[in-house]
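Fold this: Sorbitol-6-phosphate dehydrogenase
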Amino acid sequence: MKQVAVIIGGGQTLGAFLCKGVADAGYQVAVADLNQDNANKVAEEINQKHGAGTAKGFKVDATNEDDVINLYKSIEETFHHVDLMVYSAGVATASPINTFKLTDFNLSIAVNLTGYFLCARETARIMLKHKTAGRIIQINSKSGKVGSKHNSGYSAAKFGGVGLTQSLALDLAEYGITVNSLMLGNLLKSPMFQSLIPQYAKKLGIAESEVEQTYIDKVPLKRGCDYQDVLNVLLFYASDKASYCTGQSINITGGQVMF
Protein backbone atom coordinates (compact mmCIF):
# COMPACT_ATOMS: atom_id res chain seq x y z
CA MET A 1 0.00 0.00 0.00
CA LYS A 2 1.41 3.34 -1.07
CA GLN A 3 2.03 6.08 1.44
CA VAL A 4 -0.25 9.09 1.20
CA ALA A 5 0.84 12.72 1.52
CA VAL A 6 -1.44 15.70 2.06
CA ILE A 7 0.05 19.02 0.93
CA ILE A 8 -1.87 22.06 2.16
CA GLY A 9 -1.23 24.99 -0.17
CA GLY A 10 -0.16 22.56 -2.86
CA GLY A 11 -1.67 24.36 -5.84
CA GLN A 12 1.19 26.69 -6.70
CA THR A 13 4.81 27.75 -6.15
CA LEU A 14 6.63 25.86 -3.38
CA GLY A 15 3.59 23.77 -2.49
CA ALA A 16 3.21 22.54 -6.08
CA PHE A 17 6.92 21.72 -6.22
CA LEU A 18 6.63 19.69 -3.01
CA CYS A 19 3.57 17.83 -4.33
CA LYS A 20 5.49 16.74 -7.41
CA GLY A 21 8.58 15.93 -5.33
CA VAL A 22 6.78 13.62 -2.92
CA ALA A 23 4.99 11.98 -5.85
CA ASP A 24 8.40 11.31 -7.41
CA ALA A 25 9.39 9.75 -4.08
CA GLY A 26 6.50 7.27 -4.34
CA TYR A 27 3.63 8.90 -2.45
CA GLN A 28 0.05 9.28 -3.51
CA VAL A 29 -0.77 12.96 -3.11
CA ALA A 30 -3.78 14.93 -1.94
CA VAL A 31 -3.20 18.38 -3.42
CA ALA A 32 -5.20 20.80 -1.26
CA ASP A 33 -5.46 24.48 -2.08
CA LEU A 34 -7.79 27.46 -1.79
CA ASN A 35 -7.82 27.54 -5.59
CA GLN A 36 -9.51 24.38 -6.87
CA ASP A 37 -8.30 24.87 -10.45
CA ASN A 38 -4.68 25.11 -9.32
CA ALA A 39 -5.03 22.01 -7.17
CA ASN A 40 -6.57 20.06 -10.06
CA LYS A 41 -3.84 21.21 -12.44
CA VAL A 42 -1.04 20.02 -10.16
CA ALA A 43 -2.81 16.72 -9.53
CA GLU A 44 -3.29 16.15 -13.26
CA GLU A 45 0.39 16.83 -13.95
CA ILE A 46 1.29 14.23 -11.32
CA ASN A 47 -1.17 11.70 -12.75
CA GLN A 48 0.19 12.17 -16.25
CA LYS A 49 3.65 11.32 -14.97
CA HIS A 50 2.87 8.61 -12.43
CA GLY A 51 -0.48 7.18 -13.49
CA ALA A 52 -4.16 7.86 -12.85
CA GLY A 53 -5.13 7.91 -9.20
CA THR A 54 -1.71 8.95 -7.93
CA ALA A 55 -3.00 12.42 -7.04
CA LYS A 56 -6.25 14.28 -6.59
CA GLY A 57 -7.00 17.98 -6.19
CA PHE A 58 -9.09 19.28 -3.29
CA LYS A 59 -10.38 22.75 -2.45
CA VAL A 60 -9.88 23.98 1.11
CA ASP A 61 -9.82 27.20 3.07
CA ALA A 62 -7.36 26.15 5.75
CA THR A 63 -8.60 28.89 8.08
CA ASN A 64 -12.16 27.50 8.09
CA GLU A 65 -12.75 24.66 10.53
CA ASP A 66 -15.68 23.08 8.68
CA ASP A 67 -13.76 23.27 5.41
CA VAL A 68 -10.76 21.46 6.90
CA ILE A 69 -12.94 18.79 8.53
CA ASN A 70 -14.71 18.16 5.22
CA LEU A 71 -11.38 18.06 3.39
CA TYR A 72 -10.13 15.26 5.59
CA LYS A 73 -13.38 13.32 5.20
CA SER A 74 -12.88 13.49 1.43
CA ILE A 75 -9.22 12.53 1.69
CA GLU A 76 -10.04 9.51 3.85
CA GLU A 77 -12.76 8.43 1.40
CA THR A 78 -10.30 8.72 -1.49
CA PHE A 79 -7.00 7.47 -0.05
CA HIS A 80 -8.18 5.74 3.18
CA HIS A 81 -5.26 6.89 5.33
CA VAL A 82 -2.61 9.63 5.68
CA ASP A 83 1.11 9.13 6.27
CA LEU A 84 2.42 12.66 5.78
CA MET A 85 0.94 16.15 6.05
CA VAL A 86 2.86 19.20 4.90
CA TYR A 87 1.41 22.58 5.81
CA SER A 88 2.71 24.91 3.09
CA ALA A 89 -0.02 27.57 3.06
CA GLY A 90 1.26 31.03 3.89
CA VAL A 91 0.76 34.76 3.51
CA ALA A 92 2.86 37.81 4.33
CA THR A 93 2.27 41.54 4.43
CA ALA A 94 5.12 43.97 5.10
CA SER A 95 4.46 47.25 6.87
CA PRO A 96 5.90 49.32 9.74
CA ILE A 97 4.09 48.69 13.02
CA ASN A 98 2.59 52.20 13.14
CA THR A 99 0.72 51.53 9.88
CA PHE A 100 0.20 47.77 10.23
CA LYS A 101 -3.49 46.99 9.76
CA LEU A 102 -5.25 44.67 12.20
CA THR A 103 -6.91 42.92 9.26
CA ASP A 104 -3.47 42.06 7.84
CA PHE A 105 -2.25 40.87 11.24
CA ASN A 106 -5.32 38.68 11.75
CA LEU A 107 -5.01 37.22 8.26
CA SER A 108 -1.40 36.29 8.92
CA ILE A 109 -2.34 34.53 12.17
CA ALA A 110 -5.25 32.76 10.49
CA VAL A 111 -3.34 31.42 7.48
CA ASN A 112 0.10 30.82 8.99
CA LEU A 113 -0.94 29.53 12.42
CA THR A 114 -4.63 28.69 12.83
CA GLY A 115 -4.69 26.81 9.54
CA TYR A 116 -1.67 24.79 10.61
CA PHE A 117 -3.43 23.90 13.87
CA LEU A 118 -6.62 22.80 12.13
CA CYS A 119 -4.86 20.69 9.50
CA ALA A 120 -2.52 19.13 12.04
CA ARG A 121 -5.45 18.26 14.29
CA GLU A 122 -7.41 16.56 11.51
CA THR A 123 -4.27 14.78 10.29
CA ALA A 124 -3.65 13.48 13.80
CA ARG A 125 -7.23 12.22 14.07
CA ILE A 126 -6.86 10.13 10.92
CA MET A 127 -3.39 8.88 11.88
CA LEU A 128 -4.62 7.83 15.33
CA LYS A 129 -7.71 6.16 13.86
CA HIS A 130 -5.59 4.05 11.51
CA LYS A 131 -2.69 3.62 13.96
CA THR A 132 -0.31 5.31 11.52
CA ALA A 133 3.07 6.43 12.85
CA GLY A 134 3.05 9.35 10.47
CA ARG A 135 4.73 12.69 9.91
CA ILE A 136 3.44 16.23 10.28
CA ILE A 137 5.70 18.92 8.81
CA GLN A 138 5.12 22.66 8.88
CA ILE A 139 6.75 24.93 6.34
CA ASN A 140 7.93 27.74 8.60
CA SER A 141 10.53 30.51 8.19
CA LYS A 142 13.64 31.95 9.79
CA SER A 143 11.20 34.68 10.85
CA GLY A 144 9.89 32.11 13.33
CA LYS A 145 13.23 32.24 15.15
CA VAL A 146 14.32 35.87 14.74
CA GLY A 147 12.15 38.95 14.48
CA SER A 148 11.62 40.47 11.06
CA LYS A 149 11.46 44.23 10.59
CA HIS A 150 8.12 45.39 9.13
CA ASN A 151 6.85 41.78 9.24
CA SER A 152 5.32 41.69 12.71
CA GLY A 153 2.24 39.69 11.71
CA TYR A 154 4.19 37.10 9.77
CA SER A 155 6.90 36.72 12.40
CA ALA A 156 4.40 36.46 15.26
CA ALA A 157 2.53 33.69 13.45
CA LYS A 158 5.72 31.82 12.61
CA PHE A 159 7.01 32.01 16.19
CA GLY A 160 3.64 30.60 17.22
CA GLY A 161 4.12 27.77 14.77
CA VAL A 162 7.30 26.69 16.54
CA GLY A 163 5.49 26.47 19.87
CA LEU A 164 2.61 24.60 18.25
CA THR A 165 5.01 22.15 16.62
CA GLN A 166 6.69 21.40 19.94
CA SER A 167 3.34 20.95 21.70
CA LEU A 168 1.98 18.67 18.99
CA ALA A 169 5.18 16.64 19.10
CA LEU A 170 4.64 16.04 22.83
CA ASP A 171 0.96 15.18 22.30
CA LEU A 172 1.70 12.63 19.58
CA ALA A 173 5.06 11.13 20.57
CA GLU A 174 3.53 8.11 22.29
CA TYR A 175 1.86 7.16 19.00
CA GLY A 176 5.05 7.36 16.96
CA ILE A 177 3.85 10.45 15.09
CA THR A 178 6.56 13.06 14.65
CA VAL A 179 6.02 16.79 14.17
CA ASN A 180 8.68 19.16 12.86
CA SER A 181 9.00 22.65 11.35
CA LEU A 182 11.25 23.59 8.46
CA MET A 183 12.63 27.10 8.94
CA LEU A 184 13.25 28.46 5.47
CA GLY A 185 15.61 31.18 4.39
CA ASN A 186 14.55 33.68 1.76
CA LEU A 187 12.97 32.03 -1.27
CA LEU A 188 14.16 34.85 -3.48
CA LYS A 189 12.51 33.62 -6.68
CA SER A 190 9.17 32.84 -5.07
CA PRO A 191 6.14 34.97 -5.99
CA MET A 192 5.70 35.90 -2.32
CA PHE A 193 9.22 37.34 -2.00
CA GLN A 194 9.02 39.01 -5.41
CA SER A 195 5.75 40.68 -4.46
CA LEU A 196 7.39 42.17 -1.38
CA ILE A 197 10.42 43.64 -3.19
CA PRO A 198 8.93 47.15 -3.49
CA GLN A 199 8.22 47.18 0.26
CA TYR A 200 11.66 45.79 1.10
CA ALA A 201 13.32 48.37 -1.13
CA LYS A 202 11.48 51.13 0.69
CA LYS A 203 12.35 49.61 4.07
CA LEU A 204 16.04 49.35 3.21
CA GLY A 205 16.26 52.63 1.29
CA ILE A 206 17.66 50.97 -1.83
CA ALA A 207 16.60 50.41 -5.44
CA GLU A 208 14.30 47.46 -6.12
CA SER A 209 16.99 45.96 -8.38
CA GLU A 210 19.34 45.76 -5.38
CA VAL A 211 17.01 43.91 -3.02
CA GLU A 212 17.84 40.31 -3.97
CA GLN A 213 21.60 40.85 -3.77
CA THR A 214 21.21 42.61 -0.42
CA TYR A 215 19.48 39.54 0.98
CA ILE A 216 22.02 37.18 -0.59
CA ASP A 217 24.84 39.13 1.07
CA LYS A 218 23.33 38.29 4.48
CA VAL A 219 23.70 34.54 3.86
CA PRO A 220 27.03 32.85 4.69
CA LEU A 221 26.58 30.40 1.81
CA LYS A 222 25.85 33.36 -0.50
CA ARG A 223 22.67 32.28 -2.20
CA GLY A 224 18.95 32.24 -1.58
CA CYS A 225 16.94 29.22 -0.51
CA ASP A 226 15.71 27.09 -3.43
CA TYR A 227 12.62 24.89 -3.59
CA GLN A 228 14.88 21.85 -4.01
CA ASP A 229 16.66 22.68 -0.74
CA VAL A 230 13.30 22.47 1.01
CA LEU A 231 12.29 19.22 -0.67
CA ASN A 232 15.61 17.57 0.19
CA VAL A 233 15.17 18.22 3.91
CA LEU A 234 11.46 17.46 3.87
CA LEU A 235 11.98 14.01 2.37
CA PHE A 236 14.46 13.17 5.12
CA TYR A 237 12.13 14.22 7.92
CA ALA A 238 9.25 12.38 6.24
CA SER A 239 11.28 9.16 6.16
CA ASP A 240 11.96 6.46 8.72
CA LYS A 241 15.52 7.76 8.92
CA ALA A 242 14.17 10.69 10.96
CA SER A 243 11.91 8.63 13.21
CA TYR A 244 13.87 9.73 16.31
CA CYS A 245 13.50 13.44 15.50
CA THR A 246 10.44 15.34 16.70
CA GLY A 247 9.55 18.82 17.91
CA GLN A 248 12.44 20.28 15.96
CA SER A 249 12.74 23.55 14.06
CA ILE A 250 15.21 22.75 11.29
CA ASN A 251 17.05 25.63 9.65
CA ILE A 252 17.31 25.75 5.86
CA THR A 253 18.90 29.17 5.80
CA GLY A 254 22.37 28.79 4.32
CA GLY A 255 23.82 29.58 7.74
CA GLN A 256 21.93 32.84 8.23
CA VAL A 257 20.26 31.41 11.35
CA MET A 258 22.20 28.84 13.35
CA PHE A 259 20.13 27.99 16.42
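The beta strands are 4-8, 28-33, 55-59, 84-87, 135-141, 178-184, 249-252. The mean pLDDT is 96.
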